User: What shape does this take?
Amino acid sequence: MANELKYGDAVSLENGYSNWTGGFLDVTAGAQPGAAFAVQTASTAQRSGLSGTWKIASASGKADGTTVTSGDLVHLVNQYGNTSYLDVNGVPGAASTGEKYSVHTSATPNRVGTSGEWFLFAETSSPQDGAIRVGDGVHILSNYNNASGGWLDISGGGAPGGNGLHTAFTSYYANRQSGSGAWRFAQA
Assistant: This one.
């Protein structure tokens, strides 16, 4: 079928906050010790070259070119500079708003345990065959600590000095506020 995501695809991820105005997942300077980059959203998918471009890699051994399906376990590999992996890393500063872990990128697929593994869960697709397609709403769950790393989410301003919209973190909730935990893929 057309528009199915495949392992090895280069994509951007748009956030669903406030009717899809949450920006595009992006990396920037300002990472905490042990991390490659801070993660935020930006107003465009190409804020700084490939800073908003991600490759979908299987964390369970599926080959490039295989269709990505709802429930799959993946690595999201940022393509800026030396590639780096989306990763949970440390505790965010505002736990009172439902935040669980900070999100940065790491030079390795799993910095600690399963910190760089993520489950993709589609809200729906057409046809309803399990495949995730460009434009489908998805929720992204960290597999850290036996899938209890929280849902990929955004809040507040971008990373300091990163020209971003919102900071990425994980949340206890799949839809913490006005679509902040919803994402959709676009081909990069």
User: Anything to note?
Assistant: The first strand starts at residue 10 and ends at 15. The mean pLDDT is 93. DSSP finds two helices and twelve strands in the chain. Residues 83 and 165 are 22 Å apart (CA to CA).
